[in-house]
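Budget justification note: compute hours in this period were largely spent on complex prediction jobs such as the one shown. Inputs:
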Amino acid sequence: MFCIKGEGKNKDTIIHHYRKGGTTLKTSKSCLKGIIRAGATAVLFAACVAFAAPVGLPPVPVPVDNPMTPEKVKLGDKLFHDTRFSTTGEVSCATCHDTAKGFADGLPVSEGIHKLKGTRNAPTIINSAYLHTQFWDGREPSLESQSAQPFLNPVEMGLKDHEPILKIVRSDPEYSALFSQAFGKTGEQITMTEVKQALGTFERTLISGNSPFDQYYFKGDKTAMSPAAVRGLDVYVNQGRCVSCHRIEQTQALFTDNRFHMIGVSANQMPRDLEELSAAVRNVKEKGTDIAVLSNPRTSSLGRFAVTGDLTDIGAFKTPTLRNIELTAPYMHDGSHKTLEEVVTFYNNGGALNETDTVPELLSGGIRPLNLTDEQQADLVAFLKALTSPEFAPK
Amino acid sequence: MNRRAFLKATGTGLMASAFPISLVKLAFGGQDPSRDFTFGYISDAHIQQIKGTQFVRNWDMGLIRAVREANLLTPRPDFFMFGGDLAQLGKKEELDHGLEIMSNLRGKVRYVIGEHDYYLDLGKYWQDKISPLYYSFDHKGVHFVVLNSILTYHKWTYETWPSPMDRMLAMARLDNPQGSPFMVGDQQIAWLKKDLAKINQNTPVVVFSHSPIQKIFKPWNFWTQDAEKVQALLKPFEKATVIYGHVHQIQYNQIGNITFQAVMATAWPWPYPETYSQSASCLPKITVPMNRADPFFERDATGWQFVDMNSGKTAMHYQLPDNPNRTVIFDAATGKPKDVKYQDYIRRIPPQTHF
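Corresponding output:
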């Protein structure tokens, strides 16, 4: 696991790279290329590089209003693992984002209080600091805003509101000390803002690169990957068409384009006509996106559409990273693919597990049959297994 | 909600309203709301047979997607238009396969013929199975005319080619030095004159054609040879609009009283010829160019559109997979169509110039 170095000393590298109304404002030294997209709410989301990243990853973007400190990390770590923030006292963030399981849970869809099932597969939170949006449908713009949602979802931690959390953190002596050190706040001064900031800060330390692929590709160690994985990389960037969404750049690789695509997973769950679509949209409006999509597979299948209402986004889900993918089976937003081999078969058939399955009508134009041989498919899987960071590699 | 407020709300409002963009009732408070209506427009599917029951997947998927999306529009459009080039090489198999996909579209569909549908059998199967080649109809106070604008010289059509398929292949080629310019022809122009004679000059008139009834770029047949003759017949009308396919891109223009708007293809995008020639040109500057297509996403820079007629002029709502949707309305203040979002140069997304 990568840990903080420098503790936010590199203040001179703070930049504000902020886009609003088509104008890009640069307010300080540019140390990070790339624009952090601000939504309609125009959250000032600047980036400060608090620490260097491992091989294959860019500097970690940190919001200017929530700089990294070791005190906040320590507090966030404790909050992340605290089961008292659920109605049963049994579920914490770490229940579904388990260190031992690649910060996922190994289940098709996650289980919250009373073993209640949601509709979506727990994504790893390793490297989630780099994502432009959070959740499979990108309904939250930051780790901070994302972190407050699962507490209140009836199938996750089940709280009615955030008050029980505040009650604990304001009265528990251990938390009192930690909040005091992290934020200089005690008692009533502690609000959900601090809780969310601490959780976000902790998650920004879960950065993991330096895989055999990184050594091979960015460090030139030609022996770092097996010959099968090297052949698999060729399939990945050429005939397999993987790299167009799961991107590898010249100096780093996040393995995501931060976009949303309808690749055909769980297409049979999607609303079949206008009436079903309208019902699903009403469900979103009435219950709120977070609760609606996790409680109803048909509503869940709307994907990004539940957030944007744009027809392009029906059934579209965020491109997940592929780093450490070997650890986080089963796959896809609904956990419907058991193995990497199944995933590769699915793409090879152009968005279908069986060649004879009906092609979804709203399938993304990027998805089409690939005509890969069995050997090419096996090589591709070998390559995907070369994306595991050493700290997670099977012993 | 007036038009401006509607566009503002749907531009960035996302789920701010009860329903997503296409599910919002398009009520702009026109003078007579009972006459407000929308129609859908799908065009240039280019369904192409490989052999037997095998068809080009990419073109199939484009038309299937457009039909599926159009079925999610609410309130339902009053009718749909198909703007021509249902087939690639005019074959019965291609037209039948295209019609099969179109049969899933919920609502009445009217058809405009394109050159890819015509030049194999000169429109015989089309007329038997699909539609007359030219006709007119009235709907809620608007007079609609469908033209067959892809005819050409008698000699080229009947005396030049050894076989119908040779003729079809020649017309299907862009930049073909042996090609021939499109025209409406005097017989149809005489019919149009008679048809329009009955219509009050205050009545909004909308002409649907496959080729542009204006002259843009002859080598690609972005062109109708006798366009001026048709334009002259439309001149007396207060509100005249021509909607055309063929060019596979967003175009709009104003010539005198006539507004021109192109519709998207579901199959593939063409660039504006100016960008193709990559040198100074005298092409009319009639459009905000489309964002460059990302070729990985086959649907990028394709699409379909729905049109609202509530001001008596066409407001075109382009639905563009993998690309921001666009809306082009008639701006009464300037007397020209304009893109509601990207018309100002500063608002445009600069084209990518390298990879």
